[in-house]
Amino acid sequence: MPRRIDSQDGPSPLLPLILVLAAGLLHWRVAHMAGGFLADGSLADPDSWTRILRVLALHEGAGWHDGILRTLSAPDGLSLHWTRPLDVMILAPARIAMAFGVEPREAILWSGAWVCPAQHLLALAAGVWAAKALWPGMPAWFAAVLLLGNGAALAYSVAGAADHHTLILLAALVTLGAGMRAAINPERGAQAWLAGFAGGFGIWISPEALLTVAPLLAGLGLAWLLAWDGHRHALQGLRASAGLGLMLALAIGTERPFDEWLLAEQDRVSIQHLAMAAAAAATFLLAAPLGRLPVWARLPAGAILAAAAGAALVWQWPELLRASLGAADAGAAALLLPGVDEMQPLRFGTLDGLADSVIWAGTAPLALLALALGLEFEGWSRNGRWTAALMVLLSLLTALAATLMARRFSLDLAAPAAIGAAGLLPLLGRLLMGPSRVVAVALFAALLLGLPVLAGLLAAPAEAEVRAAQDCPTGALVAFLAAHPPAAPGAVMLADNVNLGPELAWRTPYRQTAAPYHRGGAALLDTSAVLAATEDSEALAILARRSVRLLLLCRAAPHLGGPFAEDSFRSRLLAGARPEGWTEVTTSQEVTQDFLLLSLD
Questions:
Q1: Long-range contacts of the stretch 539-543 (C-beta < 8 A, 24+)
Q2: Cis previous bond, 75, omega within 30
Q3: Closest CA to 264 of 198, 199, 201, 327
Q4: Cα–Cα distance measured from residue 108 to residue 286, given in angstroms and rounded to the nearest whole number
């Protein structure tokens, strides 16, 4: 059996500082790349533009419980499922900057642009802390290296990504780190409470965090089933469920007015999530007295309790198993979701697809091997540490299954993968090359895992290549629209590329008809109907109902609907037809080569 790696074999005390500097330099480098935030002021995606629009609205006096964003899905506004914690994290430092004279929009833009890199640094530290529970006596800083080189973690954490995904990752790492400690030592009740609080905070950010919370509770449940004294593990499960419930109750009370406390929503923290915590607490409470029965007697009792809790939840909320997708309206389900890249499954059938899957899935295969070895390493089966390995394995398999269905969940996979894989690298160094070469082997393995990602980041594309990769580059268009504001404040624009809506709503004085969100299906359907209309009267009626004064067509393929027939409204406009009352706006040559801009006289 390999001996424990002594502290003298561990990394230099300067290593945490080196990792922080490396992470900071990496984010700084990405921000300076063509298309990066510091290169041209661009945010990462439509979600990031929408987030700072929402924060600006809050700063300018929008109600705390007002989830309608007036600048999108005009004229009615877009209902958003997002919650307020990230808004506050962006607005708080922005307000400090405003106190020193920084213009509000500029302060919010910069605060939003850097909130995810800052959270990524916190996630690296949380990953190290979590890995120490699974790999005692090992240099757990490997978890930070793996999180730094993980493709999904980097993609969602770059400068300009003002989104909540990195915050979900941070909550997942704390949930698993505390949950493992609670499972290893059932006397550490505070760790169980912390795991519940962190899991509840993750669900507050997004119900996607259930991918970590469910394995937490299932892991404690299996520990109740398999441990000699399951009573203590049931009490830990009860504490974790109670902490989960308290945080969710706080979230519901904070996010919703009193008359909506009992409203159930799939995509936003609500009463059904609190009911899940209550059902888990009741299950552990009833299971606790049975914890000293033989395993063969506990198994049917536990199965009955878990099945009863699950059946009650599904009976009350039949859409529960569809998760957030159950909240997508018909228009979004038909027009939007099939074309969203991050909602697509991983592809293994081609070489490109395999390479893409490796980048998105990150360290999962290595983590599986690490856990397989870990179950026999340092006597885990004797000291109770198998409960922590079991929890990480459940989290890994749950997130891996979700990632295979939709690659956006690869970020949820990053947390258990980094924790599980952290201990394998020093173990290989001990077995293969001796204690003096641990760091060398680790760096080699880290580079092997992160090479596709880091190579892509360090090889910055040329400006021309970035422009060529964009269907509808907005730089010249934004400059023109900002210099030619509408005669009437808040005029509405319809763009055939709905991905441009949030950016144009922030950078120009025009409200947008549609944006790529699953609650905005009505606006998406109207936009598609305008573009596909075979009669001018059909399109003009919708434009009038939506109060549209400006029509923007990208000459490249639009990001909504299509392909369009030759007699469609969009095709006729691009061919030179002009409906009564609509005229082409004279713009610069740089704008004209990419867009057709029409205005209602």
A1: 539/569, 539/579, 540/579, 543/494, 543/600
A2: yes
A3: 327
A4: 49
CATH code of the domain containing 527? 3.40.50.12610
On whether residue 490 sits in a domain, the answer given is yes
Question: Mean per-residue pLDDT for 345-357?
Answer: 67
**Domain assignment present for 587:** yes
In angstroms, the Cα distances linking 567 to 554, 556, 575, 576 are: 17, 18, 10, 12
CA 36 to chain centre: 19
Of 1-5, 368-372, 408-412, 477-481, the poorest mean pLDDT is in 1-5
pLDDT for 328 beyond 90: no
Q: Are residues 109 and 31 in the same domain?
A: yes
* Domain ranges, residue 505: 475-600
Q: Are residues 441 and 483 in the same domain?
A: no
Domain boundary among 455, 490, 523: 455
- Over range 524-538, report the average pLDDT: 90
What's the Rg (C-alpha) of the chain? 26
Confidence of residue 281 (pLDDT cuts 50, 70, 90): very high
Domain-terminating residue out of 455, 490, 519: 455
pLDDT digits (tens, 9 = 90+) for 216-246: 999 999 999 988 888 999 999 999 999 999 9
Task: Name which of 95, 120, 119, 112 is nearest 43 in CA terms.
Answer: 112
What does the pLDDT read at residue 257?
A: 94
The pTM of this model reads 0.89
How far apart are alpha carbons 27 and 357 in whole angstroms?
23
Residues 257 and 370 in one domain: yes
CB 492 within 8 A of CB 512: yes
Q: Give the pLDDT of residue 449.
A: 52
DSSP-derived 3-state class of residue 568:
coil
Q: Answer for the pair 273, 248: CB distance below 8 angstroms, yes or no.
A: yes
Which residues on neighbouring strands pair with residue 425, listed in sequence order? none
- pLDDT of 462 higher than 50: no
Is 455 exposed, middle or buried, given 0-12, 13-18 or 19+ CB atoms closer than 10 A? exposed
What backbone phi and psi angles, to 5 degrees, belong to 383?
-100, 5
pLDDT surpassing 50 at residue 463: no
Give the integer Cα–Cα distance in Å for 416 and 291: 28
49 assigned to some structural domain: no
The residue written with tokens 């077995």 in the block is 431
